[in-house]
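Progress report, Aim 2. The chain analyzed during this reporting quarter is listed below.
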Amino acid sequence: MHNFPVPYPNELIYSTVARASIYHGITSPKQLLDEVFNNRKVIATLDLPCHLQSLSEQLQSTGRFSLEELIYRHTMFPLYAPFVTEPHRTRAIQLMARRSQGAVHLLLGVAASRVKTDDRLRYCSACLKDQTQKYGETFWQRNWFFPGLDLCPEHGALHLFRVGTADHRHQFHALNVKPETSLNAGISNPDLLRLAQYASKLIDMEPDGSPSFSQWTAFYRDLAVDFGLCRGRHIKHDEVYALVSNTFQRKSLNQLHLQINSATDTCWLKSIFRKHRKAFSYLEHGVVWQTLLPNLSPEEIIKRVRQMKPNTKIFVPTTSQQTAINQDLQSKRQLWEQAVLEVGVTAARKNGTGKALYAWFYRNDRAWLLHFNARHQQVRSIPQQKADWRQRDLMIVRRLFSVLQANEIDSFAPRLSANYLLSQLNNKSTVEKNLDKLPLVKSFLQRYSETITEYQLRRLSNACIQIYRDTGQLKNWVILRQAGLSKERLTADSQRVLAELRFF
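Predicted C-alpha cells for the chain:
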C-alpha cells in the first residue's frame, strides 16, 4: 500500500490500520487486509497483533519503525515482556512478526491469566480534545486498553465505543465518535487510577531482556527481608496480606479478580513470594510494588531485578552424610523391589506406601526406577479380535457405492468429498479411526472422492446450462456469480477450462 499512515506516539497498530482504510477510502475489510498485509486471514487484534513485519516494510521509507519499535511502542507487549522468561519474550517477538494463530496470547499467559482482558473499544473524551488540537484527528491510544483497567491514567473515566452488530473479526474500526453511540463509564476508583498510572510508566519502558524466574524469586525474597516480613526462611504471609489490604480496598481487588485470602494456600499473593515457576501479570506485580515500593518507578524496580544474583549454592555432602544417603537409598530400593515382586508394578504404585516411594524415586532416582520396572512388567496376552473387519469392510463399501450412485444422479449435490461420503454412514467415527483395517473403504475413498477442481467444474457446468437456457448468452462474471465462485478461489485447471469457453 502506498502512503501508509505513520503511527502517532502511543497509538495502537489497530488504530493505524483503521486510519489507513479511511485515508484510502477502503470499505471492504478483506480488501484492506489484501492492501496492507497481502493476507485476507489477518484478524483485527487490539493488544498483541501479528504480521507486523508487513507493516514495518510499509514504513521502511520513514527510516524508523523497526519490528521491535512497532511492538514496544504501538502494542501492549511491554506489559507482559518483563515478566516472562527471555526465551519466551524472544519467541513472542518472532511470532508477532509473522503469523501466530493465537500462540502469542498463550505464550505470554494472557489466555490463562487471572486478569481478564476486555476487547471492547473505549476512549477518553479529554484525550480526544488533546489529540484533535495536536494532530488534527483522533486515534486509539494504548493507555486506554490496559487489561483489567477500564480507565485513562490521566483523566480517569472512559467511554465505551459501540460498533455495528454486523461487523466481524477482520474489521478495523476507526475512532469516529458519535454522541448517541457512546456510554459513560463509572466514576474512577483511586486505587485503580494509581495502578493505571503505574501501567502507563511500565508500557513506556525501553526494550530490554527479561529477568529469569530465579531472579524474580530472589527479588521478592530480599524484598520480604528488607521489610521484616520473614521469620527465618519463612514468609509472614499474614503481615503481607495486612499491608496490601491497608493499601488497596477489597472492592478494588475484587474488580481486578485479584482477591486475597490468607486461609487459601494457592492465593496469588502467597505464590508471588514463593519460588517463581510461572509468570505473574503486571497487575499482580503492581499491587505488591504500589504497597511496598510506591516511590520507585517500574523501570527502576525491573533494573534492580535484572541485577539480582539467584542462589546457586550446591550442597556437597560429607563422607558420613554420603554414607547415610547411600544406606537410605538402598533401603528404599529394597522396599520397592519387595513391593513389586509381591503385587506387581501397577498395584505397588496404587497402595499408600508404594505411591510415596514411586514419587520419591521418580524425583531422585528415576533411571534406576524405570530400569527395574521395565524388567518386571506384567506380560499381557494379546486379546482375540472381536470384530470381523473383512466382513465389515465389504458391508461399508456396498453402502458407500449406494450413496455414490444416489448422489451422482443429482448434478447439484454437495461436493462428494471423503468426509461427505463418510458422513452418510451411521458409524462415521468408527470408520475414520480404522481405515487401516478397511482396505476396500480406503481404496474407494481415494478413487471416487470428488476433488475441488471436479466440484468447481460441476458448478460451472450447471451455471452455464442455466444461464444459456435463460438468456442465451454466456459471460464470465455472470457464470462465476451463478456458480458462487470467484477468480481467487478457482484452481488452475478450473481457470483454464473457464478461459477456453467461447463467450458470445
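The beta strands are 122-123, 151-152, 156-157, 159-161, 182-184, 230-231, 234-235. DSSP finds 25 helices and seven strands in the chain. These observations will guide the mutagenesis work planned for the next reporting period.
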